[in-house]
Amino acid sequence: MSNNYKDLILLVYFNTVKASYSYMEIGNNFGFDKQQILLVIERFQSEGLLIFDKHYKLSEKSIELLKEHGLYEINYYDSFEITSVIGNKQMDLDEVYVPVGFMKKIK
Predict the structure, then answer these.
(1) Which domain CATH number covers 58?
(2) pLDDT tens digit string along 56-73?
(3) What torsion, rounded to 10 degrees, do the Cα atoms 39, 70, 102, 31 define?
(4) How many domains would you assign to the chain?
(5) What is the pTM of this model?
(6) For the chain, which has fewer Cβ within 10 Å, the N-terminal or C-terminal residue?
């Protein structure tokens, strides 16, 4: 896993919603189209982060990853301002997100 913030937040999402995940919600919140969602889920499966047992759920590997980053106990809905994290523009999977005002904070 690339330790990409979107990947981590998406794992937090799966951890919060369990079997109640929605492709539409993932697409809307993360700026992914259907094909991108399927590619990310496929990548998560190949990396051993998601397993399918009647529905997608976190593997032990992804649970440990979330714990390592202090994100396991986080509730997705209580913890993120989705519009400020993702925005409305669909981004390519490899595109780097630079938050608004980022350059002001590092000067």
Answers:
(1) 1.10.10
(2) 999 999 999 999 999 999
(3) 30
(4) 1
(5) 0.71
(6) C
